Amino acid sequence: MKNRELIAFGLCVALLFTGCGNKKDIAKEEKIEAKAQVAEAVGEEESQDNGEYDFTICFAGDINFDENWVTTQYMNTCENGIEDCIDSELINTMQQADIMWINNEFTYSDRGNPLEGKAYTFRANPSRVDNLDILGVDIVGLANNHVYDYGRDALLDTFDTLEQAGIPYVGAGHNLEEASEPVYMEIEGKTIAFVAASRAEKNRMTPQATESEPGILRCYDTEIFDEEIKEADANADIVVALPHWGTEYSTELEPVQVETAHEYIDAGADVIIGAHTHCLQGFEYYEGVPIVYSLGNYWFNEKTLDTMLLTIHCYGNNDEDNREVLITPALQANCTTTYVSDADDQRALFDRLEDISVNVQIDNDGKVEILE
Q: Are 305 and 328 in contact (CB under 8 A)?
């Protein structure tokens, strides 16, 4: 058994002795401590002498807890809440990731009024943040076109809600300095930087933060975002750039997505993970760096759509760095998101993704690679 498998097994044992292995019933601090104890038991500290590391960063697309939206109304009828809405196989993958990111496509608040003239506005009761713990979420993206749906006060409430839950957010802030600041996370001796910005709105209703006012970071003009990526690259081992972009429900890429994805990689991004389109878009490799143009919906509405969890498996040592891109195939339908377990159905989903991608191949295990 490999060391990381021993660690996983030992962690399960350690969690059992704490009283429960369910993430919603155990503080993250206890899980981290348990993992550290198990890692020491299998000699992980010795492996660190060689700079060895092995961890995963997982990403999910749009999630919506709006009180009046169909997904939340369905969840309210479920005995086990969000756990009856998202397949246990998927939740397990989310919980087991060392870092789990989602696109938080709504605002947490009881205050504010819907922005005038906006067709869809999303606001969730702050208590809904508990769902993030159940899902194993460690960081959320706020650089999107719905986090300001109920105005300034609701955005500030969103910050407060996430901060009180101990969940970092990226792509928005109390001012421009904060909104354009990388979020750094440390794991196994590596520093991961997350940076996020939005260019999703044709009618720009979600404001960019200013020196004195809260808002998001926009990237219609890429200068600030490029500088943020460069800053992150100077201070981190891996830079994850998270643009919110593209045309809704279209698998066809906007030319600006391709142009700016390459620009962000030239600035220092090591992974590009896009969102906004409510459907999956394709992959591309540029200068050896993976681009995931859109994660689409994860659990957002009642439509029947392909979806996925996207995992970056990072491993290596002092001599080499490796990053595998892995798909966990899923289907959103009827307000639920289920794991696609049938091999033929998995292959069909992978084929659909290959057809809309630029230069990738996806093997039967969901591993994404450069098409030679």
A: no
140, 163 in Cβ contact below 8 A?
Answer: no
- Domain check: are 133 and 39 in the same one? no
Q: Which of 31, 49, 67 is the last residue of a domain?
A: 49
Rounded Cα distance, 242 and 237, in Å: 16
Task: Say if residues 52 and 7 touch (Cβ distance below 8 Å).
Answer: no
Interatomic CA distance for residues 230 and 95, integer angstroms: 31
Helix (H) or strand (E) holding 99: strand 99-104
Averaged over 259-267, what is the pLDDT? 98
72 and 138, same structural domain?
A: yes
Could you give the CA distance from residue 149 to residue 184 in angstroms, rounded to a whole number? 27
- The tally of CA atoms less than 13 A away on the side-chain side of residue 370 is 8
Cβ neighbourhood burial of 84 (10 Å; 0-12, 13-18, 19+): middle
Tens-place pLDDT, residues 173-201: 999 999 999 999 999 999 999 999 999 99
pTM of the model: 0.88
Burial class (CB in 10 A: 0-12, 13-18, 19+), 188: middle
Name the CA dihedral angle for 305, 251, 311, 324, rounded to a multiple of 10 degrees.
140
**216/291 same-domain check:** yes
Specify whether 80 is located in the same domain as 33: no
DSSP strand E in 113-263: where?
A: 123-124, 139-141, 169-170, 172-173, 183-187, 190-198, 215-216, 238-244
Domain range holding 150? 57-370
CATH of the domain at 154: 3.60.21.10
Asked if residue 122 and residue 67 are part of one domain, the reply reads yes
Here the tokens at position 269 are 């991004």
Rounded to 5°, angle at Cα 280 from 290 and 367: 45
β-strand partners of 103: 62, 141
Total domains in the fold of the chain: 2
Same structural domain for residues 44 and 64? no
pLDDT of 44 reads: 52
